[in-house]
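LAB NOTEBOOK - FOLDING QUEUE
OPERATOR: T.R.
BATCH SIZE: 2
PURPOSE: Compare the predicted structure-token outputs for two unrelated chains run back to back under identical settings.
PRIORITY: normal
REVIEWER: second-year student, initials M.K.

ITEM 1
FIELD SEQUENCE / FIELD STRUCTURE:
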Amino acid sequence: MEFSRHALEKHRLDVAKYAGLELLEAVASNIDAIFRRGEPDVVPDRLIGLELERRRTVVKYRCKTLRVVVAKTQRCYLIVTVFPDPGSAPHFVVEG
């Protein structure tokens, strides 16, 4: 099983509906640092063959504190989801 280009673009647009394309671009430009500073997260059983590792990182962007979940695949990093996490201290500050 492999992610298709169409599925990846649809997923990106779905995440962008909540977080905005500007945030996604800012996260993508800092993806290595965000991934390294994150805490390990469980890879769902159905994605074990696709994802090598998954991490969650608390990111400060503008005035928002967000939890960003990033998966590492053989080819790239994938921003899985972004959601609010107002009570946590950020691991990384994204300039924007």
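ITEM 2
FIELD SEQUENCE / FIELD STRUCTURE:
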Amino acid sequence: MTRAIASLLVTSVIVALPIIAHAETPEELFDRGWDAMDKRDYETACALFDQSYARSRATGPLQGLAACYEARGLFRQAITLWRDAEKTLPPNSPSLFGVRAAIKRLKPRLAKLTLRLPAGAEKTTRVEIDGEVVEVGSPVEVDPAVNHVVTVTPPDELVRRYDLRLGEGEGKTMSLGVMRPSSIGPVDLGQDAPAAVGPVRATGIGLAALGLVGFAGAAITGGIMMAKEQTIDEGCNGPSHTDCDATAIAASEDAKDLAPWNIAAWIVGAAATSAGVTMIIVGDGSPSKPADTAKVNVSFTGLGATVYGTF
């Protein structure tokens, strides 16, 4: 029994020896990485170059990994590695020319994002792009055509998240204080984000427009009433408007019907314009607090109009 166990152990060691002996060297991993590059299997190639560089810390695998990231369109990672290679290579290295050419080739293709906080923001507010803390107000290189996550963490407040994507070579300035956080899909910065029209200002603009409509209605109904008064003067005898003909009587009834509408139009015009201008001037306030939704309702009756709402 003892001999059988010993024989089994020896057999296991003999079987394991070829596996240990054939562990891939950094050079072999490097060669396999380029084979995968030739097959356009970039994910495998990057993994092999990464393993080779981790074991050797040589510039060859570092350049291979940079070339792999570039082939995948991850320009920021690629140019970072190319720059590392440029710092590591000796001044007389024949590879230095190709490394510098790669840096020059990639630099204009990178997207650049500049983030700004609103005036009065706490100095301890932390801003990150894809989990990396960045300096506010300075352009940051990012990969184009890739979704990015910007997070803003004020002291003692909830984290606010912004999803965005930039095009190749695009430069953009994003004012975090006026953009609404979004957790659904990327924000296309190909178009300028609305910088100053929040829900309160938008409601103010709507109210101001309603006020103009009210004034227009007041002017129209007032003009009609004046025409009716002229008809009454022509169809009635004396200043007391007695003994009126049928046309004058009809005009008088029409004028009475229009009177409450004229008054209501003036009220709506004045109230809506006043509220609208106030809301436009005041604006949306602090972006960290969700604005209430403003609602305005106007109902007309035979006797006038009622205006009510929430702000």
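REVIEWER COMMENT (ITEM 2): Confidence is low (pLDDT under 50) at residues 1-21, 183-196, 285-311.
FOLLOW-UP: none requested
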